[in-house]
Amino acid sequence: MTAQVFIPKDTTAVALGADGLALKMAQNIESRSLDAEVQRNGSRGMFWLEPMVEVKTESSRIAFGPVNASDIESVLDAIDDHLAGKSIDHSLYLGEVEKIDYLAKQQRLTFKRAGVGDPICLSQYQGLSGFKGLAKAISMTGQEIVDEIKNSGLRGRGGAAFPAGIKWQTVLDTPGEQKYIVCNADEGDSGTFADRLLMESDPYQLIEGMTIAGLAVGANQGYIYLRSEYPFAHKILNDAIKRATEAGFLGSNICESGKDFFLEVRLGAGAYICGEETSLLESLEGKRGMVRAKPPLPAIEGLFGKPTVVNNVLTLGAAATILEQGSDSYKDFGMGRSRGTLAVQLAGNVKQGGLIELAFGTTLREVVEGFGCGTHSGRPVRAIQMGGPLGAFLPESQWDTPLDYESFAEIKAMIGHGGIVVFDDTADMAAQARFAMEFCVVESCGKCTPCRIGATRGVEVIDRIVGDQDRDNNLILLHELCDTMELGSLCAMGGMTPFPVRSALTYFEEDFGINSRRDH
Amino acid sequence: MNAKNNNVDQLIEQYKTLPGGLLPLLHAIKHALGYIPESTVGSIAKGFNLSRAEVHGVISFYHDFNTQPVGHHRVQICRAEACQSMGSRQIESHAKQSLGIEYGETTSDGMVTLEPVYCLGNCACSPSIRINDDIYARVDKSRFDQLISELNMPELDKVETSS
Ligand SMILES: Cc1cc2nc3c(=O)[nH]c(=O)nc-3n(C[C@H](O)[C@H](O)[C@H](O)COP(=O)(O)O)c2cc1C
Ligand code: SF4
Ligand code: FES
């Protein structure tokens, strides 16, 4: 057979030159008359190896990476040898893809298809168990589907970790002619890209999960609220929805079931707060993204006042896997009340950054050291921020915390959407604390004073502390300000901005000029 | 200006019956004109049965919706934490200095508008920037300069392709 040469078309791979590489590779293959053709796949999420080139023959699937334009000739020589049955000697050769340590050590459920083939090819998706969960859901009652999700123990992957089955049950139980499924694809946290990777590399899984949710609760309309910072995911989702509709997996009478499910992508407009579910709903309705007070819960009065499921991309993706493989097998993964797998995203100053899907329970250290292999700069790791801009900065003493929602809550930190940002020892933690306040100023919806005004004061107070102006009193002021924000804010934007600030102060006080001569 | 407003009127017709159609409309106007002219607020308000103040309120809430024309290329620098940990603050000051503009401003030749952005989902290979719809990874000062030097005026593109 003609060998397939896969070159990913995902945002990060393309940002590292994959498009140009694919073009040149195809030209050189032709001029060499090699029995091979270039195909574009999604990414495996081993981003430090991108652009990663995979070569698939009847008997194997091998990889090279990271491949730059200047490596093309030598990589093609190696491929030539490989096709001729000779062994490969190339510095970028990585061996069999599935055996690369980084991938082999993971438990991939949600990301099992990512990077395997063409993301928008329906037959490939079906060939890899795609739409099997949907087929099962079609043969079940709404209550049976909800029971499966409940039994799986699945909790929301967007940050708040609320049990998905209970949310679905509420929507199912709330009477209403019109109900909605809303996918939260606003993925605003720095250090996160799992939603993007899933949408770009396996978009049908999200479509399948949303359709299953629609069948479960009796909703015939879905919206994907996608951040405008993801232009490529936007394109691919629209392509996938079009194809799925043409093939009868979306639209009226899906798969001859007599049920309808329509799906549309809506773009956000550059507001972090629109990731908060009620702000998101306001935005979908065409309004300012002002956070709503709860109750009423969106499950009861959500989009346009109708019962609405709002779930993160990964929660909905997991629903498809759960229906396909059964809730018992899903809940076998994990620890305590955190069941299934967590899509850890390793980012920032790290040598081997990427997507790491693991059963809950691994420690932060195992991820950063075992997978990340230290910093990109080669300097020691100083701090880790987990859970996005509202997550605490963790010093080394906390890196042995297992990745489990409850264990993280105990140390006043959070798993959130699973993003890990690594900082080396050149990081200025006072500057990071200041940035946390600054970010809150920029992104506050403006509804509550402690958040809107408090964050502005926070920036000023930190400046005074660092500038050694009446430091002791300003430190007291900063803590009081944090108390006010925590207690007087309607949502986690104002309520949790103090977490990174306080953790920086507690664990890295020397950066604020406090005890700067202390030995450590 | 009239042609512009005709165009906008058509878009309003197209989006006013769409549930929650105001954001999609604003995106469409921005896509067509590069910005949301003040002069369109009245007809948007009328089409959507809203007050002008309400439409203003929505436009001003979102970072994406600018009401002034921008340069031919939108250059966004990621300011979020993962990029900071890889030195984006230096890229940021280099960009401002080499282009001679601050965030929200356009170079005097109308070529580049510089904007901040908070995460492009490329955080495993930071620092990241976005130029129009393209994202670039592991950007340092010299890569930034190179990318800027490769930018063309759209008119020049046309001359090149038609010759
Ligand atoms: C400030 C703020 C930002 C948020 N951003 C996101 C986001 O980008 N994506 C997301 O899925 N959830 C985000 N959330 C959580 C949502 O409010 C909500 O809990 C989630 O969409 C529910 O889906 P899940 O149960 O599947 O996680 C955010 C919450 C807050 C307070
Ligand atoms: S805490 Fe901030 S973002 Fe949240 S509702 Fe209040 S003002 Fe809005
Ligand atoms: S923080 Fe810059 S791309 Fe995510």
From TrEMBL, chain A:
Domain of life according to the entry: Bacteria
Similarity annotation: Belongs to the complex I 51 kDa subunit family.
The protein, known as: NADH-quinone oxidoreductase subunit F
Keyword terms: 4Fe-4S, Iron, Iron-sulfur, Metal-binding
Matching Pfam families: Complex1_51K (PF01512), NADH_4Fe-4S (PF10589)
Domain NADH-ubiquinone oxidoreductase 51kDa subunit iron-sulphur binding: from-to ranges: 430-475
Protein's UniProt keywords contain Iron: yes
Family annotation (PROSITE patterns): COMPLEX1_51K_1 (PS00644), COMPLEX1_51K_2 (PS00645)
From TrEMBL, chain B:
Bound cofactor: record note: Binds 1 [2Fe-2S] cluster.
NCBIfam families: PRK05988.1
Record protein name field: NADH-quinone oxidoreductase subunit E
Names of the cofactor(s): [2Fe-2S] cluster
UniProt family annotation: Belongs to the complex I 24 kDa subunit family.
GO molecular function, one term: NADH dehydrogenase activity
A Pfam entry, by short name: 2Fe-2S_thioredx
Classification via InterPro entries: NuoE-like, NuoE_N, Thioredoxin-like_sf
Organism lineage string: Bacteria, Pseudomonadati, Pseudomonadota, Gammaproteobacteria, Cellvibrionales
UniProt binding sites for [2Fe-2S] cluster: 78, 83, 119, 123
SUPFAM superfamilies: Thioredoxin-like
Keywords carried by this UniProt record: 2Fe-2S, Iron, Iron-sulfur, Metal-binding
